[in-house]
């Protein structure tokens, strides 16, 4: 093990995020060289580093090609800042010369600019995906009631549409169609690439003149609840999205409309994320939680759709 020199210790202590180049104690003649070496330690090679003060993106080594999770910027010819969006890590390296007192401020600004650029890109992608969602939705026909997913779940298609073999669940944000969830014949579900995800929701039934609204995770659960109870059911898609969806709904609906969170009971999963997140969403808006009641001896069902199906199959 190599012990850092006193000088290096001082440098390390001075800035918590000083990265590979300085840690190694190497002195570099150019920032391009320093950054190349630092990135190589993350498995990134062959980049043509441009120390032009602009923000540059590159693929991280741990995600598929084209991920553009990595970024760097050289605010001066002595300093480079780089990081990875998906891990949140950020490093500053220098050519190893005397630290420029302006460099820390430059670094913060560079990071800020990189983040703003990333945000702008994300919003632009979301807008493109929303456009695609609207095109697909407009071109799609009503869902076939004999679609394998619907027959397996024994559910009517309600408002779903279909493109080829995919069922399309429209996802709205503030009343606008912004994304689509595709349900494949075997039940795999996937939203369109790059679309808005947080706070988006779908609806089974109609909110008009309803005095009670349920919020559930999946479309099938929502459809089964709507069929059983005759109330509109909002589809939040997953447990983490229950709270943002519940909050928006509470803001939009009149106070005398009761909102109830219909939980998935992930009783076979550590920490029961369905029930846990449902309780948090309910707490956030002062709502009650509705838990599924399982048929006696059932060791399979976890949500309202399962229970409805279980009952139908027992009767049949
Ligand atoms: Zn069951």
From TrEMBL:
InterPro entries named in the record: TOPRIM_DnaG/twinkle, TOPRIM_dom
Highest taxon of source: Bacteria
Pfam family, one: Toprim_3
Phylogenetic classification of the source organism: Bacteria, Pseudomonadati, Pseudomonadota, Gammaproteobacteria, Oceanospirillales
Protein name: Toprim domain-containing protein
Limits of the Toprim domain: 213-307
């Amino acid at each position: 093990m190599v012990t850092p020199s006193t000088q290096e210790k001082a440098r390390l202590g001075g800035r918590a995020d000083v990265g590979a180049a300085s840690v190694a104690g190497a002195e570099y003649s150019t920032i391009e060289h320093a950054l190349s070496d630092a990135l190589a330690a993350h498995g990134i090679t062959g980049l043509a580093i441009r120390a032009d003060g602009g923000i540059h993106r590159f693929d991280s080594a741990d995600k598929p090609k084209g991920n553009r999770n990595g970024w760097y910027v050289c605010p001066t010819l002595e300093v480079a800042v780089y990081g990875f969006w998906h891990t949140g890590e950020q490093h500053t390296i220098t050519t190893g010369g005397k630290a420029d007192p302006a460099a820390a401020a430059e670094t913060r600004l560079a990071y800020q600019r990189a983040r703003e650029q990333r945000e702008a890109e994300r919003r632009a992608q979301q807008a493109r995906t929303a456009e695609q969602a609207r095109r697909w939705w407009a071109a799609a026909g009503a869902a076939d009631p004999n679609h394998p997913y619907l027959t397996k779940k024994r559910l009517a298609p309600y408002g779903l549409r279909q493109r080829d073999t995919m069922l399309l669940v429209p996802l709205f944000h503030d009343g606008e169609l912004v994304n689509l969830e595709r349900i494949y014949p075997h039940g795999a579900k996937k939203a369109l690439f790059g679309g808005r995800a947080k706070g988006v929701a779908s609806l089974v039934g109609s909110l008009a003149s309803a005095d009670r609204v349920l919020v559930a995770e999946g479309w099938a659960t929502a459809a089964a609840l709507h069929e059983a109870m005759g109330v509109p059911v909002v589809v939040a898609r997953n447990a983490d999205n229950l709270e943002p969806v519940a909050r928006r709904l509470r803001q939009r609906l009149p106070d005398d409309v009761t909102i109830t969170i219909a939980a998935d009971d992930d009783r076979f999963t550590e920490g029961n994320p369905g029930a846990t997140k449902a309780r948090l969403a309910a707490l956030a808006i002062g709502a009650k939680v509705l838990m599924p009641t399982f048929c006696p001896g059932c060791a399979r069902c976890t949500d309202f759709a399962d229970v409805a199906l279980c009952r139908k199959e027992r009767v049949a």
